[in-house]
Write a structure and sequence with these properties.
Distance between the termini: 44 Å
Order of helices and strands: EEEHHHHHHEEHH
Shape: elongated
Number of helices: 8
Helix content: 40-55%
Radius of gyration: 24 Å
Largest sheet: 3 strands, antiparallel
Number of strands: 5
Structural class: alpha+beta
Oligomer: single chain
Bound molecules: zinc ion
Strand order of the largest sheet: 1-2-3
Strand content: 15-25%
């Protein structure tokens, strides 16, 4: 690869020094990796860069691999939090075992699938939205509760008569499994003592 001579796109010289440089490529969800990219320097005019454009495909392949890794990491996170894939697939009307196949890499999700998984990681209650046939009552309440939890510095929640209760910070799934209503969340709040910042 290094032996093929390259031509400087600026001055046309073939006195091109071909080197490589390490660059970190990140996807939008925080996964990143280092790749070796071509870095050419014209000894005659000083022009530098990727003279043949060969880096483009490397970068694109890397980004695709990062997206796959992001999906796998998120689904592993769901697994670690005992999220029921079958229930999630039902709610989202995905074919059975879709999430498992995405997780074990046997199927690569489409771009839309990647985005869906990212949204689910950020807003797990979207599953509840789907379960409720996209009616807003419970989902909206859940959204408000989740938002309050995210922004509250004390990780507490205050009910309508002003009573504050500590909540489990890890309640993004607790809230799904424990009741889906403000009342049940409030009841559970009093019992929740575990503070788990892992989701931050
Ligand atoms: Zn040149």
């Amino acid at each position: 690869m290094m032996s093929e001579s390259k031509i400087c796109p600026l001055c046309g010289s073939d006195q091109v020094e071909q080197t490589e440089k390490l660059e970190t490529i990140s996807d939008s969800f925080g996964e990143s990796t280092e790749v070796k990219l071509a870095y050419d320097i014209c000894k005659r005019c000083g022009m530098d860069g990727d003279f043949t454009g060969c880096n483009n495909s490397i970068i694109q392949e890397t980004i695709n691999a990062l997206k796959s890794q992001t999906v796998i990491s998120i689904l592993q996170y769901f697994s670690d939090h005992n999220v029921n894939f079958a229930g999630m697939e039902r709610a989202l009307e995905l074919p059975q075992r879709t999430l498992s196949k995405w997780k074990n890499g046997s199927i690569t999700p489409t771009a839309a699938g990647v985005t869906l998984v990212k949204f689910l990681r950020l807003f797990p209650w979207l599953t509840i939205v789907a379960e409720n046939r996209f009616h807003l009552n419970t989902p909206l309440l859940t959204h408000i509760i989740e938002s309050v939890k995210k922004i509250s510095p004390t990780y507490g929640i205050t009910d309508d008569i002003g009573t504050s209760a500590p909540i489990a910070v890890d309640a993004e799934y607790t809230c799904i499994t424990l009741g889906k209503t403000y009342d049940s969340l409030r009841q559970d709040n009093a019992q929740q003592e575990r503070i788990d910042l892992a989701w931050l």
